């Protein structure tokens, strides 16, 4: 099966970020979306440790330990960018001022619940950072993740088995197989990777999906229509 | 004449008592007041409750304080890092208490303490394990969690420049928790790269007004360069 590569996935997410958007890219895979934002669009990247207008990594040798991102990597500030303290930074997040945040995930439920901070393992040291603030605060929450775990289980689930980060907060899921919207009527497939049939995607997903086509032919799952 | 400057980092932390709650600024190592922390270790206060975003990196600064076993409890949002092995070992051995707080709640609880707010409702963590046991409320159809302020006996923060009235400016993302921690502590101690004469800081750009700061101490190490540099 052909899957979106990490780079293709990042480029696909970048396509949905419009000019003028205030955006927070989570640590890990979502950070790579920045490499695919078109240079002709002015997009404001926010980093929760206190900067807006974040630029790319500095040239080797030009790193400044006082200028880092939320992942504690050295970054730069674009002309016009700003620094601020943590309460202001989280007011931007929690106060609904960010247009989009992009987060990684362990699981997303059919209702848009997000689990991305803790596996629930007894001996794991819990660490949450700003994940819960982003999940509830941004106007739109995009999740970027593999469609399945390494053992082939669907990461889109009926109910998250991992501890939740936020309740009914995810708007759109980008996986290596598909782009799926979380709607009040259930999960709606917007796009499928080339060569993969809807039925096959449905088989790999494990929770009911609809697509524009499927809806037209009345194949929508009954369990979802009742929500 | 009011002069909040203190001659040395050791004098600045000399009255931190055993069992004190101490806020320590910084996000990772950016803005971490390492010299004040070293002075606190030398001072010897024990059974401390520490408030910081993280739980130390490698064996310097906050991690060194943990390693010296001076900390009973840490309140933070993200203890686990690639080089947080000092905390990790203490945690697994059951030798340190952890209160894990979502980062925005941590910032807002500190801000609330500084602003005299008794408690506040926030949607962050609603419906998650970090809200378990906490009071919740539906406001306009949305779930919120009641959170209380975090105040402290001392705040140790790092700023770029300060004056004898305690006015501070910061440098880039090293600002992070400094301004809110200064407001939330009974005694805020700022280590600065440079103490400047009164009036040298543009009043339009002062970030932390001196009312929030009790002590200012110059530290003659410029972390941006490998060579030590004398402070003004």
In short, what is this structure?
Chain A has six helices and 13 strands. Chain A is of the alpha/beta class and 227 residues long.
Protein architecture, described:
The complex is a heterodimer of chains A (227) and B (232). Chain A has 227 residues and is an alpha/beta fold. Chain A has a single domain (6-225), classed as Glutaconate Coenzyme A-transferase, CATH 3.40.1080. In chain A, 19% of the residues lie in helices and 25% in strands. Chain A has helices at residues 6-15, 86-94, 131-137, 198-205, 212-216, 222-225, and strands spanning 22-25, 44-47, 51-55, 76-83, 100-103, 107-109, 114-115, 140-144, 156-157, 172-174, 178-183, 186-192, 209-211. A ten-stranded mixed β-sheet of chain A has the order 4-3-2-1-5-8-10-11-12-13, sandwiched between helices. A three-stranded mixed β-sheet of chain A has the order 7-6-9, with no helix packed on it. Chain A is globular and about 50 Å long. Mean pLDDT of chain A is 92; it is low at 214-227. Helix content of chain B is 21%, strand content 25%. Chain B is built from six helices and eleven strands. With 232 residues, chain B is α/β, with parallel strands linked by helices. In chain B, α5 crosses α6. Chain B is globular and about 50 Å long. Chain B has one domain (9-119, 149-218): Glutaconate Coenzyme A-transferase. Chain B has helices spanning 9-12, 34-43, 62-67, 85-92, 103-115, 178-184, and strands spanning 21-24, 48-51, 71-76, 97-100, 120-122, 136-139, 142-147, 152-162, 168-169, 185-195, 215-218. In chain B, strands 1, 2, 3, 4, 8, 9, 10 and 11 form an eight-stranded mixed β-sheet that branches. A three-stranded antiparallel β-sheet of chain B has the order 5-7-6.
């Amino acid at each position: 099966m052909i899957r979106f590569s990490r780079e293709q996935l990042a480029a696909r997410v970048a396509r949905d970020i419009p000019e003028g958007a205030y955006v927070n890219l989570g640590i890990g895979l979502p950070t790579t979306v920045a490499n695919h934002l078109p240079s002709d669009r002015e997009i404001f990247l926010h980093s929760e440790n206190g900067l807006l207008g974040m630029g790319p990594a500095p040239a080797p040798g030009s790193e400044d330990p006082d200028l880092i991102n939320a992942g504690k990597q050295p970054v730069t500030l674009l002309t016009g960018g700003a620094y601020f303290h943590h309460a202001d930074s989280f007011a931007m997040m929690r106060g609904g001022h960010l247009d989009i945040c992009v987060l990684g995930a362990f699981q997303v439920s059919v209702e848009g619940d997000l689990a991305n901070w803790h596996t629930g393992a007894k001996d794991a040291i819990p660490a949450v950072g700003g994940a819960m603030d982003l999940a509830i605060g941004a106007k739109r929450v995009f999740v970027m993740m593999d469609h399945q775990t390494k053992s082939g289980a669907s990461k889109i689930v009926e109910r998250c088995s991992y501890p939740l980060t936020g309740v009914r907060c995810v708007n759109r899921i980008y996986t290596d197989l598909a782009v799926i919207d979380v709607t009040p009527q259930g999960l709606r497939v917007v796009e499928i990777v080339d060569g993969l049939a809807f039925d096959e995607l449905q088989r790999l997903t494990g929770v009911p999906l609809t697509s524009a086509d499927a809806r037209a032919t009345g194949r929508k799952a009954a369990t979802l229509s009742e929500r | 004449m009011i002069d909040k400057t203190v001659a040395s980092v050791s004098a600045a932390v000399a009255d931190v008592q055993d069992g004190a709650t101490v806020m320590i600024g910084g996000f990772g190592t950016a803005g971490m007041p390492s010299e004040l922390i070293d002075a606190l270790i030398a001072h010897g206060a024990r059974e401390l409750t520490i408030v910081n975003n993280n739980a130390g990196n490698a064996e310097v600064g906050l991690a060194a304080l943990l390693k010296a076993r001076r900390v009973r409890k840490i309140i933070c949002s993200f203890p686990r890092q690639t080089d947080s092995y000092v905390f990790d070992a203490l945690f697994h051995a059951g030798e340190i208490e952890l209160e894990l707080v979502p980062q925005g709640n941590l910032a807002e609880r500190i801000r609330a303490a500084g602003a005299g707010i008794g408690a506040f409702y926030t949607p962050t963590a609603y419906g998650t394990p970090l809200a378990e046991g906490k009071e919740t409320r539906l406001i306009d159809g949305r779930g919120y969690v009641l959170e209380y302020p975090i105040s402290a006996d001392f705040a140790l923060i790092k700023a770029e420049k300060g004056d004898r009235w305690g006015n501070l400016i910061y440098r880039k993302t090293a600002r992070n928790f400094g301004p809110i921690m200064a407001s939330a502590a009974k005694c805020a101690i700022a280590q600065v790269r440079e103490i400047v004469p009164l009036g040298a800081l543009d009043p339009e750009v002062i970030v932390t007004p001196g009312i929030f700061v009790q002590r200012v101490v110059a530290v003659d190490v410029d972390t941006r360069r490998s060579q030590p540099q004398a402070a003004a």
